[in-house]
Amino acid sequence: MVTNKNELTEIFPKGEKGSSENFTGNAYNVGLIETDSLLTTAVGNVYFEPGARSNWHSHPAGQILIITDGIGYHQIEGQPIEIIKKGSVVKCPPNVRHWHGASADVGLQQLYIVPNTEKGIVNWQEAVTEEVYNSIK
């Protein structure tokens, strides 16, 4: 069997296409553990097609990303863009602006964990510019 090295292996359903108000390109989200008052943690999977990325955003209690396939980028405001890939674990501190998404040529699949959801889930902000996204090259 021949496979394209740029194709990702999906381990969770692709989910619903994310809003163009919060994402550039095609990103798909599926919740795996819905928020509740007992665990106060949200867990889900996001699949980013090549070139897709989130807007700048922050999480009141922070966020943990576990990259399950592909290659992408993550940036905390004021810091250099990091390359993330299968096996990477990223901690996004509480109330700190950041973005993440796929590389230009390869998609990205990530699990997200948002703790202490009673503090809020996400605060969406403006789109990441092409200049910022392409500055990794």
Automatic annotation (TrEMBL):
InterPro entries: Cupin_2, HNL-like_cupin, RmlC-like_jellyroll, RmlC_Cupin_sf
One Pfam assignment: Cupin_2
Spans traversing the lipid bilayer: none
UniProt domain Cupin type-2: residue ranges: 46-104
Domain of life: Bacteria
Listed PANTHER family: BLL4564 PROTEIN, RIBD C-TERMINAL DOMAIN CONTAINING PROTEIN
Name the record gives this protein: Cupin domain-containing protein
Species assigned in the record: Flavobacterium agrisoli
Upper taxonomic lineage: Bacteria, Pseudomonadati, Bacteroidota, Flavobacteriia, Flavobacteriales
